[in-house]
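B., you asked whether I could sanity-check this one before it goes into the benchmark set. Here's the sequence:
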Amino acid sequence: MKQIFITISFILLLGLTSCSDYLDTVPGDKLDDNALWSNPSLVEGYVFHIYQGVPYPYQWYMSASLVDEAVPIQNDGVITKVITSTMTPDDQGAFASNWAATMENWWWKSVYSNIRSCNLFFEKIDNTEFTDESYKQQLIGEVHFLRGYFYYLLMSQYGGVPLIDKVMNVGDNYDIPRSTFEETVNFIVADLDAAVANDKLVDQADKTRATAGAVYALKSRVLLYAASELYHNTSWESGYSHPELVGYTTNNRTALYTAAKTAAAEAMKLGYELYNVNPDKAKNFQELFLQMTSSEQIFITQYDKVNTPYWATDWLAWVCGAPSYGGWGLNQVTANLADAFENSDGTTFDINAQSANPYSNRDPRLDGTILHNGSPWYYNSWGYLSPTTIDITQGPDYNNGNTTGYYIKKFISTTDQENTWYYGSRQPQPYIQIRYAEVLLNYAEACLGLGDEISARNTMNLIRERAGMPNVPDTETGTALVNRYRNERRVELAWEGHRFFDVRRWMIAPEAYTDAKGVRVVDGNYTEFDFEQRAWNNSHYFIPIPRSEMQKNSALIQNPIYQ
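And here's what the prediction gave me:
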């Protein structure tokens, strides 16, 4: 992405940071319209600034720690409110502004601020004359994608939300009711359709910006969510009087699955490929996330001195890396996730039966994702641990030995043999917001929803083949195949921000919010233990709308069960 933020930062600072939300909007004269909207270069910079509203994944507390993928070692109310299902409209934990910036840019107030930026663009763009009209149309398409993306963030958390497609100013009526869930999904889809309607994004090659592939991939995700069980099952709502706000009131799952499949298929036509370069399947999977560019990337985010979120934790090794190597291990992988990786023959892993050697003959993605006892890892010059393998029984530990026994390997580069990723330079690799494997999984899930098990298996097998795993047996059908798919999605997309919403939309959250487990070595055998208590309450299928927002907007209706 071009970086011209510095030259226009004084304009954007006045025009954007002051618009913290719709109820704190400052007069329009705080933004120099003549300077901005008459200059195509400044308009381009304005659009680049909107991209900074796309959520940043590497925070002090990772989203993985909000579900059964990880535990936060520095636990406090930011995380505890979520994992014990005790969020309230007065305290949303990670889903409202917090010191750790966890789920930053997902917060209600932040998202609506970014939506306002999109709406201001649509209101003003006709005033800007471009020498290249096609580029102007491309920018319009990109902002449609971004507004659809921001509303997707709201939809996945809250269900139906107020749909605001104009700039709100002081004196306007802020009592805007929530639209239905169906209307919210349709609004997002309409924005995404508008993004590719003029074909200007088809030739867009910069993956830090909206492309046709990114649009279709996001559309498949949104429609797949919409077709999921949560939005068509009212059994959990406890007599909620407004079911239309949190799901569909008509039976249209077949149409939604069909539309999700079609959107995924459109993305599959655009030449993306699974990264498959290294014959060592574990290393191949690890390398996928360390490429500056690859055919699997669809939408990525680059971080630099200009685009630097709070905490700047692109020092991922420092925040989440193994303490024996200088990391803080603040987010540690659960045994729950580690156990989800199958044996190499495709059978289910069983810690009790395999306690003597649990990491032998496993899905190669395990070693590409998780550092476990005996994992090869690089030695650093500070000499914390002489062996070049992880040993969970020794080495200094930030949390005095309180460890799950697993650390994250995915995303962390090993190219710097002096380990400066821990304390020195930031990793240069971009974060993959959307990749081709997700599109294939979306397609497979839509096929399952439509009863096309053959296509679902064939598509899953593309991913399993890349991973070095055997095909799903042709004899596996029905519930067993659905469960196999869900596990495949779990291990393939681990720690990539999907699991939190997957367990909700599939309505398997009660299973996911059982106690988080760790592993220890006792007399040469590995045993698992309860590391952290967790609990589930059905209210937490959705995030509570902040009470402060409901006080500002009297037309809002709270989500089910919350008081």
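One thing to flag: The first strand starts at residue 70 and ends at 72. Otherwise nothing jumped out at me.
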